[in-house]
Write a structure and sequence with these properties.
This protein has 152 residues and is an alpha+beta fold. It folds into two domains: 99 residues, Alpha-Beta Complex (Hect, E3 ligase catalytic domain fold); 40 residues, no CATH class. It has four helices and six strands; from the N terminus they run αααββαββββ. The strands form three sheets. A two-stranded antiparallel sheet has the order 1-2. The chain has a two-stranded antiparallel sheet with strand order 3-4. Strands 5-6 form a two-stranded antiparallel ribbon. A hairpin with a 2-residue loop joins β5 and β6. α2 packs across α3. The chain is globular.
Length: 152
Amino acid sequence: MHPEPRPEEAHVVRLVFRFLRARVSTRQIAAYLERRGYRRRNGKPFTPREITHIGRNPIYAGLRQHDHNWRDVRNGEGTKNVELVPAQWDSIVGEELFYEVQTILNDPKRRTVRPGLNFLTMFTKCAVCGGPLGVRKDGKATGFHVPPGIGA
């Protein structure tokens, strides 16, 4: 016997899959859910990473993964080398929608970061003032931002 999905959580899952099928960005989906007051079970807002995790999770399609190597299809590598088999629970979104979303999420042309964003933005700190460093574009040059008053 498997528990029934919570209606409010199933609603969010369906929303996420519909938005992903429409090629709405994970950032926009997370922002939409935040504006509507939807939260994760822990009370925190959804992040783009969690939106992708929902979109890649086969349990919502009534599938379970079978792989003797214990690989997880949610790791961004899609479903290669993993057999998805019917599960003992009902689907929330259906297999057709699930596989359609996998095709979209696995599309190499899909942008997964905002243009102009550097992976070090906000993760590095200035050695002088301790403030966050970022990358900015000012016309022709791109480089690390130096806080005002420090000089270069």
